[in-house]
Amino acid sequence: MDTLISKCKSVKKPLVVAGCVPQGSKDLKELEGVSIVGVQQIDRVVEVVEETLKGHEVRLLNRKTLPALDLPKVRKNKFVEILPINVGCLGACTYCKTKHARGHLGSYTVDSLVGRVKSVVDDGVKEIWLSSEDSGAYGRDIGVNLPILLNAIVTALPSNGSTMLRIGMTNPPYILEHLKEIAHILRHPCVYSFLHVPVQSGSDAILTAMNREYTVGEFRR
Ligand code: SF4
Fold first, then answer.
1. Does residue 68 sit within a domain?
2. Can you list the alpha helix ranges (DSSP code H) found in the chain?
3. Number of domains in the chain
4. Structure confidence at residue 136 (pLDDT)
5. In the prediction, which pLDDT does 217 show?
6. 24-43 pLDDT per residue, tens
7. Which among 37, 110, 126, 195 has most CB atoms closer than 10 A?
8. Is residue 112 part of a domain?
9. Pairwise CA distance, residues 86 & 65, whole Å
10. Domain of 30?
11. What is the pLDDT of residues 11-24, one digit of tens each?
12. Same domain, 37 and 87
């Protein structure tokens, strides 16, 4: 990031930096003189770009409610929709910058996510990738859980398998409570039989030092 910022500064390009690092460490000296936009203000990026192009330095970092799911977007791959199911997490891993930026778990409702799925299927999207800092924790702040969400989403997908669902990254602790239901959903013809579970370490002592809240044995399970 520092290299990119220096490059842009040296050719005097207007620059907006977004994401977890500026949100979590806004006072970094590398960020002096550039515009920054926080993770929950991304819906105001047009405004930030316009102001930056006029030569102003903008800093928008306040946290507010969850950004809308239906913001206009240009997909990198027009067949793939990356759909966040929540922001933040329930973890407190000792090494983590994301937590500083994204904070405590904030889940989108099942209805809003199913509504978004229906609208992207109508757009011709062929794969929906759910994303999350920790999919297994989804919904615990709003009284639902991941199996409830996934079952609701698959009923909104075309039954001929023309749009596939991919479940996002999950840590072990919460998803272990739902193994049976998740195994069942992973066998659905519209769902990829795929889970992304970061191991982080094969040592219980290191996992404890990282505050990962699971053991090697639980990961294996
Ligand atoms: S669960 Fe992920 S996002 Fe949350 S603190 Fe741990 S590493 Fe960071």
1. no
2. 2-10, 20-24, 45-53, 98-102, 110-122, 146-156, 172-175, 179-186, 204-209, 216-220
3. 2
4. 96
5. 96
6. 888 899 899 899 998 888 88
7. 37
8. yes
9. 12
10. 2-60
11. 999 999 998 888 88
12. no
Distance 93 CA to ligand 1 centre (A): 5
Determine if ligand 1 sits within 6 Å of the CB of residue 133.
yes
Same domain assignment for residues 138 and 176: yes
Neighbours of 23 (CB within 10 A): 24
Q: Is the CB of 69 under 6 A from ligand 1?
A: no
Same domain, 114 and 188: yes
Q: Which atom of ligand 1 is nearest to the CA of 171?
A: 1
> b or e along 24-52 (b: 16 or more beta carbons within 10 Å of the residue's beta carbon)?
beeeeebbeebbbbbbbbeeeeeebeebb
The protein residue with its alpha carbon nearest to ligand 1, atom 2, reads 133
User: Within a domain: residue 71?
Assistant: no
**Ligand 1 pocket residue status of 93, Cβ below 6 Å:** yes
Residue closest via CA to ligand 1's atom 6 equals 93
Ligand 1 centroid–CA 95 distance in Å is 9
Question: Are 190 and 141 in a shared domain?
Answer: yes
Residues 162 and 89 both lie in one domain: yes
Is the CB of 96 inside a 6 Å radius of any atom of ligand 1?
Answer: yes
Ranges of the chain with pLDDT below 50: none
Give the CATH number of the domain where residue 212 resides.
3.80.30.20
Alpha-carbon distance 164 to 102, whole Å? 28
For ligand 1, whether the C-beta of 89 sits within 6 Å is: yes
Q: Is residue 128 part of a domain?
A: yes
